[in-house]
Amino acid sequence: MPLVRAHTTLMLPEAIVIESLLDAHGIRFALAGKDIISQCPQFKILFGGISFLVDEADLEMARALIADAEHVPGYLSIESAGFERWPVRNAILAFVMLIIGTPFPFWYRGRGSQSGLRP
């Protein structure tokens, strides 16, 4: 059977909870994007988050289980609400973090040793 998208999230902890929920109910699924987001969280917006792919026959049950889990008090954090509210701003911030974060260690090259002595 072909796989269809049941849910997409930007939050890795949410993905882990949904993963265990679907596994506990015996629903077979595949994850798209979890590896890249767990290794490079700044790319989660650029890659579209973590998607849960399930069989068409299990789609309604999977969506019902995920919908029940989303109504837990305190489920939405300030961070997740901010990601949904300002997606363009967050994409720009991810790009700026990538640009500024990459050359940072090279700014300290050639400034001498810690004791002040030059080689």
From TrEMBL:
Superkingdom field: Bacteria
Keywords, ordered alphabetically: Membrane, Transmembrane, Transmembrane helix
Source organism (scientific name): Hyphomicrobium denitrificans 1NES1
Protein name (Swiss-Prot/TrEMBL): DUF2007 domain-containing protein
TM annotation in the entry: 91-108
